Automatic annotation (TrEMBL):
Transmembrane helix in keyword set: yes
Membrane topology value: Multi-pass membrane protein
Lineage of the organism: Bacteria, Pseudomonadati, Bacteroidota, Chitinophagia, Chitinophagales
Any one Gene Ontology cellular component term annotated for this protein: plasma membrane
Main location: membrane
Protein name according to UniProt: Gnt-I system high-affinity gluconate transporter
Stated family: Belongs to the GntP permease family.
Highest rank taxon of the organism: Bacteria
Subcellular location: Cell membrane
């Protein structure tokens, strides 16, 4: 019964979007109907919707708004133009995919996916616009690098949780994860981006100024890079402090400033102070950039929120537990089993983190019995958690709306990329099991 409801919900979502109802309303309708069909009491369903809104916005709202504000200030103040021209001048247009891949990878290690995505979106649009390159050709390496680090590498929440759940060694997990990540991200990023080079997408964004003057003075290269990457630096400092410093005042300060929201807020304030002045703009004009950025992403934020409601309804209805119990009856190699159950949960409920956490409870006995390597099981579950991202995943809607894609284009780009990362990651885990002998 649960499978039929999930399949019908996905089909209805695609149909309503195709009929131009809009993803925000259609996701809410699908969430309501799914909850009722799964046997939820109306009062329980209402509480689930409220919980979905709260859970989604609490982790995304400030990060997305502040990230959009920082991106807009960097763009309007000329910093993105300076960074773009510097990168293209240093590496050439032919290598720009690899530049964005490396940038996404370095930023993706310390930053959560949403924060890294918001920081790099303006750069993607600027590179595509100024170098006259197809948008997906430029966007795929960035998105692949961020997504791969998010599911494979600590200190991201899901890998860290799995390391603790399986009592794995964090150092080994990080090394094994890096060994798998490099080839996977090359295939899912630059190579897939080249296959999508002919997909026509409008290079229009709130991050691109309509009155851009090619003759206007640009800010310096060093401050442009420093302020643009300041959130990464602050969050990295927090991670290092957590591992290297004891209970000192400096660690408390770095823990505070290294929070994603605080790091972005500090960066926004510095960007207002520096780039507003460097561009000869009064404070009122600079604050207007912030308001324009937040206004420009408001609809996107609520679409993501509606996707979170859909995910919460599936979770609260007990669908994830039903699937987990069914999968526990199957007989197959431990690492493949860990990947498969996580992939099924991911497709069903949308959240990579929830899928990984739920699957951990099912496969933990296999790790405890010694039939599977704890470190490789972390990676098997992690790579399964990004399989087949579709309409019940907030990341799907972020990618679609920010890059002006149709539903079909999003399936062909984002969903294919996430599935490629998952399948290739599984192959890497299985190969590593043979080669390393663990």
């Amino acid at each position: 019964m649960e499978w039929l409801v999930i399949l019908a919900a996905v089909a209805l979502q695609v149909y309503l979007t195709w009929k131009k109802l809009g993803p925000f309303l259609s996701l809410l309708i699908v969430a309501l109907l799914s909850g009722l069909c799964l046997g939820m009491h109306p009062e329980q369903l209402i509480r689930s919707i409220e919980r979905g809104v709260g859970n989604t916005l609490s982790g995304l709202a400030l990060v997305i708004c502040l990230g959009a504000a920082l991106g807009k200030i960097l763009e309007a103040g000329g910093a993105v133009t300076r960074i773009t021209t510097t990168l293209i001048g240093a590496f050439g247009e032919r290598n720009i995919q690899w530049v964005l891949l490396l940038t996404g990878f370095l930023i993706g290690i310390p930053l959560y996916y949403n924060a890294g995505f918001m920081i790099l979106v303006p750069l993607v649009f600027s590179v595509a616009y100024r170098a006259k390159l197809p948008l997906l050709y430029v966007a795929m390496p960035m998105a692949a690098a961020l997504s791969t680090t998010h599911c494979f590498l600590p200190p991201h929440p899901s890998p860290v949780f799995l390391i603790n759940a399986f009592h794995a060694n964090m150092g080994k997990t990080l090394v094994y994860g890096l060994m798998i990540t490099v080839p996977v991200v090359i295939v899912a990023g630059p190579l897939l981006g080249r296959l999508l080079k002919n997909v026509q997408v409008k290079t229009e964004s709130v991050f691109l100024s309509k009155d851009d003057d090619p003759e206007k003075p640009l800010p310096g290269t060093l401050p442009s890079f420093l302020i643009g990457l300041l959130p990464v630096g602050l969050i990295t400092a927090k991670l290092l402090a957590d591992h290297l410093l004891g209970d000192y005042l400096l660690r408390t300060i770095l823990d505070f400033t290294g929070d994603a929201t605080i790091a972005l807020l500090i960066s926004v304030l510095l960007a207002i102070a520096y780039f507003g002045k460097a561009a000869g703009q009064p404070l009122a004009a600079t604050v207007k950039w912030v308001n324009e950025a937040i206004g420009g992403i408001a609809v996107i934020l609520f679409i993501i929120c509606a996707g979170g409601v859909f995910k919460q309804v599936l979770q609260d209805s007990g669908t994830d537990k039903h699937i987990a119990a069914l999968c526990a009856q199957w007989q197959m190699p431990p690492l493949l089993f860990g990947w498969l159950i996580t992939a099924i949960l991911r497709v069903a409920i949308g959240s990579a983190t929830v899928a990984g956490i739920t699957a951990a409870g099912v496969v933990a006995p296999l790790v405890a019995s010694g039939v599977a390597s704890p470190e490789l099981m972390v990676l098997a579950v992690g790579t399964g958690s990004v399989f087949g991202s579709h309409v019940n995943d907030s990341g799907f809607w972020m990618f679609k709306e920010f890059f002006n894609l149709s539903l079909k284009q999003t399936f062909l780009s984002w969903t294919v990329m996430e599935t490629a990362i998952s399948v290739l990651g599984l192959i890497g885990v299985l190969v590593l099991e043979v080669v390393v002998g663990v």
